[in-house]
Amino acid sequence: MSQTKPFDYSLPENHILKRENLSPEIKAALLGDPREGWSSHSNFDGYANFWLRIHNNLRGGSDYLVKGFQRLLDEAESNLDDAVNTARLKEVGANVVSFAQHHHEIEDHNYFPRFVQFYPNVEHAISLLDSDHRVLDEALDETERALSCLQNQTADRDAIARAHNGCQALQAVLARHLWDEEEIIVPILLARF
Ligand SMILES: [Fe+2]
Ligand SMILES: [Fe+2]
Q1: What pLDDT digit, counting tens, does each position of 18-63 carry?
Q2: In angstroms, rounded to a whole number, what is the distance separating the alpha carbons of residues 157 and 72?
Q3: Residue 2 confidence class, pLDDT cut points 50, 70, 90
Q4: How many angstroms is it from 60 CA to the middle of ligand 2?
Q5: All structural domains of the chain with their residue ranges
Q6: What ligand is nearest to the CA atom of residue 182?
Q7: Cα 141 to ligand 1 centroid, rounded to whole Å
Q8: What end-to-end distance do the CA atoms of the chain give, in Å?
Q9: pTM of the model
Q10: What is the DSSP letter of 36?
Q11: Ligand closest to the CA atom of residue 50
Q12: Which ligand is closest in space to the CA of residue 108?
């Protein structure tokens, strides 16, 4: 009699801070439409495209923050106060963080349980995404804390450097999560939604 191994997120092939791709076990359970064919699928313009656009906005937001903070770090001391005020990265960052939190909440509560209900084979893949969200939440909280230390009127180079580091960490985990999540859920959205 075959027995399914319990899913262990802490393994290097699963954890978002350690994996470099989805594991062969997870990949084997997916619906399997290759990414190259997604945009020509007859159902692409429904939820699949909508979802990919949200992900691209999140990627764009985290890229914008990393580049913006890097520009501030490169700024001459005499221009730094003005540059901080013009860039408004505290506000942009707050928007990116709340957009990501809202998106994950909708996935966790409204969509992931339904995906497992329709396709029980993807249970481990969805558990992986759920666990990713917890790591991402920590990265988002960390980014929020770093952003809250930024002053609007007087630039503090250390606070800018902390915000830059926080946004770089967020950019890395978001990039891994979004790509892998697309591999898991877009074929389901194409087939079913
Ligand atoms: Fe997600
Ligand atoms: Fe997502």
Answers
A1: 999 999 999 999 998 899 999 999 999 999 999 999 999 999 999 9
A2: 9
A3: very low
A4: 14
A5: 43-192
A6: 2
A7: 16
A8: 35
A9: 0.92
A10: G
A11: 2
A12: 1
CB 112 within 8 A of CB 130: yes
CA 41 to chain centroid, in Å, comes to 25
Q: How far is the CA of 154 from the centre of ligand 2 (A)?
A: 36
Ligand nearest to the CA of 51: 2
CATH architecture label of 43-192: Up-down Bundle (1.20)
DSSP 57-106: HHHHHHHHHHHHHHHHHHS-GGGHHHHHHHH-HHHHHHHHHHHHHHHHHH
CA of 90 to the centre of ligand 1 (A): 23
Q: Which two tokens stand for residue 138?
A: 């920590």
Tokens, residue 27: 């990949």
CA distance 49 to 189: 9
- In which residue are the tokens 């950019």 written? 171
- How far is 183 from 9, CA to CA, in rounded Å? 18
Question: How many whole angstroms separate alpha carbon 54 and alpha carbon 40?
Answer: 19
For residue 106, report the distance from its CA to the centre of ligand 1, in Å: 9
Token couple for 160? 């800018």
Point out the ligand nearest to the CA of residue 132. Answer: 1
Tens of pLDDT, residues 79-116: 888 888 888 899 999 999 999 999 999 999 999 999 99
